[in-house]
Write a structure and sequence with these properties.
The protein is mainly β. The chain has strands spanning 3-6, 9-12, 17-23, 31-38, 45-50, 56-57, 66-71, 76-81, 90-98, 107-108, 112-117. The strands form two sheets. Strands 2, 4, 5, 6, 9, 10 and 11 form a seven-stranded mixed β-sheet that branches. A four-stranded antiparallel β-sheet has the order 1-3-8-7, with no helix packed on it. A hairpin with a 4-residue loop joins strand 7 (66-71) and strand 8.
Length: 118
């Protein structure tokens, strides 16, 4: 499985962005997909996860602002980010792994930069 994240950019605080994670491979629908972000000097953090069945998870830091969805027909997972804050600035990555293993991600895409100005 090869993944490609896109949709990042520069946005003002309070604005929105939608990230896309496009995948190759016919078995993509059987994978869970996580969205991670990493800001300079900080550890990588999980901000969203969607299982193969469509169950979603978001940590408290983004809950209510970020929503994730998937379109298996298009082999694409989306991360809708609303009410963005400067602290959301980071490189965002998508990764895929078995739905049955929460912390395991076998495939990673290149990141897309999100910058939120105050």
């Amino acid at each position: 499985v090869q993944l490609q994240a896109s949709g990042g950019g520069l946005v003002q605080a309070g604005g929105s962005l939608r990230l896309s994670c496009a995948a190759s491979g016919r078995t993509f629908s059987s994978y869970a997909v996580g969205w991670f972000r990493q800001a300079p000097g900080k550890e990588r953090e999980l901000v969203a996860r969607i299982s193969s069945g469509g169950s979603t998870y978001n940590p408290d830091s983004v809950k209510g602002r970020f929503t994730n969805s998937r379109d298996n027909a298009k082999n694409t997972v989306y991360l809708q980010m609303n009410s963005l804050k400067p602290e959301d600035t980071a490189v965002y990555y998508c990764a895929a792994g078995p739905s049955t293993s929460w912390g395991r991600y076998d495939y990673w895409g290149l990141g897309t930069q999100v910058t939120v100005s105050s």
